[in-house]
Amino acid sequence: MAFDAGRRQRAPVRIGVLGALLMLFCLMVGVVAVLLLRTDADDSGDNGNRIVYGLTLEPSGFDPHRHISSELGIPLFSVYDTLVYRHPQTMEFVPGLAERWEMAPDGLSWTFYLKQGVTFHDGTPFDAQAVGANLDRVMNPGIGSAKARGLLGPFAGYEIVDPFTIRLNLSEPYAPLLDGLSQVYLGIASPTALASYSNNTYQWHQVGTGPYRVEEIVPGDRIVLTRNDDYAWGPVFYAPVTGQSLDMIEFRFFTDPPTRSLALESGAIQMIGELLPTDTELLVGNPALQIFRVPIAGTPQQFFINTRRSPGDEQSFRQALLYATNRTAIVDAVFQGQSPLAYGPLTAVTPFYDPGVAEKYPFDPDFARGLLQGIGYQDTDSDGVLDRDGAPLELTMVFAPWNQMSDVAQLIQSQWRDIGIDVELIQVPDYPTLAAYAEEGDYDLISLYDFAVEASILNQFYQSDGARNWSGVSDPELDEWLEDAIRTPNQADRAQLYAAIQDRIMEQALVLPIRDYVNLNGASARLDGVIFGAHGWWPLLRNFQLTS
Amino acid sequence: MSAAARNPRLAVALGVLGLIALVSLGAPWIASHDPRAAEPENQLLEPSGEYLFGTDLLGRDVFSRVVYGGRRTLGVALLTAGITLAPGIAIGLVAGYAGRWLDWALMSVMDALLAFPSLLLALALVTVFGSGVVQIAFAVGIAGIPAYARVVRAAVLEARAVPYVEAARAIGARPAGILARHVVPAIATPLLSFAGVTLSWAILNSAALMFLGYGGDVAAPDWGVMLADGRESFRTGPWVAVAPGVALSLTVFAINLLGNSVAPPPANR
Amino acid sequence: MIGYSIKRFGSALFVAWLALTLAFVALRWVPGDAVDATLARGGASPGEVAARRDMLGLNDPLWRQYGDYVLGLVRGDWGESLVTEQPVAEIIRQNIGATSALSGAALLIAVTLGVALGIAASLGRWRPVRYGAEGLASLALSTPVYWTSTLAIYVFSIVLGILPGVGGEGIRYLILPAVVLGFHTAGSIAQVTAGSIRNAMGQGFVRTARAKGLPELDVLDHVLRVGMLPVVAVVALQLGFLLSGTVITEIIFVRRGLGRVLLTAIDNRDYPVVEGLVVLSALTYSAINMLADVAYRVIDPRVRMEE
Prior knowledge:
- The complex is a heterotrimer of chains A (548), B (269) and C (307).
- Chain A contains 18 helices and 22 strands.
- Chain A has 548 residues and is an alpha+beta fold.
- A 7-stranded mixed beta sheet of chain A has the order 8-9-10-1-11-20-12. In chain A, strands 17-16-18-13-19 form a 5-stranded mixed beta sheet, with helices on both faces.
- In chain A, helix 11 runs antiparallel to helix 13 and helix 17 runs antiparallel to helix 18 (491-507).
- Chain B has a single domain, classed as Orthogonal Bundle (MetI-like fold).
- Chain B is 74% helix and 0% strand.
- Chain B has helices spanning 3-6, 8-25, 27-30, 62-98, 100-114, 118-129, 133-161, 163-170, 175-214, 223-230, 239-261.
- In chain B, helix 4 (62-98) runs antiparallel to helix 5 (100-114) and helix 6 crosses helix 9.
- Chain C is an all-alpha fold.
- Helix content of chain C is 77%, strand content 0%.
- The chains are: A alpha+beta (548), B mainly alpha (269), C mainly alpha (307).
- Chains in contact: A-B, A-C, B-C.
- At the A-C interface, helix 1, helix 2, helix 9 and helix 15 of A face helix 3, helix 5, helix 7, helix 8 and helix 10 of C.
């Protein structure tokens, strides 16, 4: 090929394919150059104390009355006030929109005395009617509440006693009521706003009484909050506004885990949760950043053991699995030691957690071998896998890829291989597929966990008719205790019941707990006053300060 | 003189592919460790004499996993490519040569499939087929058919316009004969080079599906999966991803070189 | 010409219908539905779950669900999301701009880079240039998009700190994702370009042209004209690949867009959203192919319009 200038001049003047490509290239270079040279308008504007906060998943909906994602509470816990709050340090209930409350002696009604002088972001005054409108909405089957309605338990209606007093009636006593009322899912929304939008479109126009108001919600893109300067009715743990309080918070969705630390380091965001454990060491050494390890109440990251089929139907077998699992090795390797080991069906920060479970199943492979031998497992054909009646000991373990579960499962597989158990790992892509496996019952272990400060979260997992009783347990005594524990208002009685429940669950080895869930949050070192509510996921944005 | 000696591209391509095949077949003798043995106390060790390519998050030897990983990665890729190429060529040839309504009908179906983003089509298929390596090969392979069929058809249309083919049609030669004698040789080159693209695409998409959890056995060594896993520790242990990444790129490079080497060499001035 | 246009338009609609039907069947085949993915996940009681299914029409016989949806489309009603209950048309409107910008910019980069690499790999005068170009194309084809995206963010917004990486708006935020996506798309364009140029170089007309003493640049122009034909086909095909690519780049670079919407919708078994996007994708695809046909005729006068 000769690109000979002399000959080129003799050619007729025409553009040709090469010329067209060259022009395309020049055009592109030009466009890029222009873009690089011009500065974006949003870089220069002064928005006061503004931060970008990274959310880690895109909730399938943003209406706390209707939707379930814990993630929606990260912005919205500061948009709404709840009737009561849990104090983040003591976990005790403190006044929210209700300045005090009392339970009737029979436990069938609760009276809430509301604060006066509270107004919603749209100017609507707050009163008992407003609370009633919210309760009506949550109980309306038409809105399809995924969480809020369940939190109200045996709710049977309300009476407005006077403009600032409301009584909630229950069909049976329900101890977890206050906890439900302290969650963002039962945040009190402006009745005017609720009436102005449809049950569906309200989620893009939310109005509460909280310290921040919704500026805009753009699905799939961002949520923007600005400070509510009229706010003067916050719970005791809310700090007063200073010159360093946040004026504006923009939330964006960082669903890809390795990107989160990159975004934090590059300064694109000032705060984010759910960092990769492997990234934390790197971030700890960065003076511009700080790490917050927030333990989450509820169930630990865990596997249910299927008691509906062999060999999971034998208690000694299930116990052997627990003895055979080296949780310390798993937590050190996969979670880089950033989480506490889990020992029982509740995490250690959950009220009514029974520390007694911690001693139950130390890592002891020899003891596990003994238990298995005791029920007839031996390696008769010397292939390294135990067998019984000619059938090798093979288990199926089903999990979704959330929270490094695949690494956890692979380590368990390797640990159990050492004592002669062959595990087949089945990773499913999403919750519907996981639930389909649970429905079919084709598993020996399956992973599922959920978060709550209320120990009554155990009911859905361990009652014989629980919605997600994936271990398939059916124990009348356990059923009764779980029922009693949500009816009994007395704290000491509940503590006793939950101790018995946790003991029974672990005695029967229904669950293989791995680690207490810890949310690894990263923040810019400029952020002060970073604190989270009692439920662990939701930051108290009111207390955040941006130093310079 | 053999073909390889006359054609250095072919020699390089065959050399690299042969080496990769040899390593994959001889994995049990070459690997220094059990590719599945997790030793969490040895996690993320730098490359050393003991661990040539270092260790991963679970303390497994990356070298041994790379050596073994080729088996699964390349096996799936070859199966996938086969599933794509055979129907792809057949549909493309028939549509391109027959023309008229048959062309229209076949291409409409192909276009309808092409309207799905390829990875999502594979994703939908694998959810229907279920988890497993062979299922992945089928899902990715089928998802690749329409693109390949379209390229074949385009090449056939071009070949058909060549005067001697038109002449052959005009004198009433049998379609099968024309296809075999004139059209297929004429389209061989673009098809082979696109076959390289297809194969690498198969490797990547099957790796993506395995990463998403459709591969069945998550602990099995596989270059694509290793590469995906390595991203989570790419700053604390970049070596976890480097070795499988290089292996994957080298393979694709050799496949493409092979596709190109069968083309006539650039004409000399 | 008018008859041809009508025919093309008809087949575009037919293709869209076929794609929609395939999507409809595939989605119902996949385990779980939108209620499983949202309401049942929260541990709602079976009664509530069943009531919700009724309300959303998921308990209707399949033929009725299909009929309702297709009739709705004919009337211009794209339905609404089963999860957010936003109208699908609105979701598309909100996100199409961002995705078009990303895939348009990526395609521009891909064509330029891909053709340049292809020419270098086939016509480059030094062997290192040819092998280098081939190596780069292979790298583009063999590295997953999620890897290059992560590396690009790390290198350009942390180590070098010259480009914003994630989570912003504005055109500067478009550069990295578009370059990454364009780079990967360029790989196959380069392969096909190189292959077909080599093919064209071996054909008789090159010898004839040279024998006639035509300037080399004109010979090159001839070669490229013929060599570009399969490239046009591949570029048109890249639309599907680009959409797959935008799914990953939109998520990693935290951009809004249709790819992201699609992935969320599949996760949530949000049938109307997935189906709507498939119809949109099919129509776009048909439109691009019509353009490709025109491009064919412009580049190569031998290809006649098929009446």
